[in-house]
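--- STAGE predict ---
source: upstream dedup step, 1 unique chain passed
mode: sequence only
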Amino acid sequence: MKSYALEIREKVGPECAIFVPGVRAIILNSGNEVLLQFTRDWKQWGLPAGGVEVGETALEALEREVYEETSLKVIDAEPMGLYSGPTQYFKYPNGDEVQGFAIAFIVRKWSGTPEADGDEGLKLKFWPLDNLPENIVPRHAGTIRNFLQYDGKFQLYC
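--- STAGE serialize ---
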């Protein structure tokens, strides 16, 4: 099944003509390290993330995207914040322009063994929060910074 964003993109072209709802996962292990994936498109480390499809809830999208990209099953997820506004505008490496709005979830309870899908993500690694790689997708680096200051209250980030 083709994604909603791809169907719209075929009709409007690459200009920033669409809003893309999405989810981001801050997956933590028992050592409080965050799981990052090295992405094929961006050639950077990033959080497991993706778009919400038509008919899907944000939580269902999170569960699906995490499973597709990491082979992990989300057992419990806590919504941390909503990211929207001009800071969420970006251009994909293929030239497609979008303005996203995404809900970031904290995932402390999960099952399985992390495995990169080999398509979107080339490798996965748990990183100590005080020793993250330098080449992180900027939007995701901001989400991790916000997580480090998270006080348990859902926030709006612009």
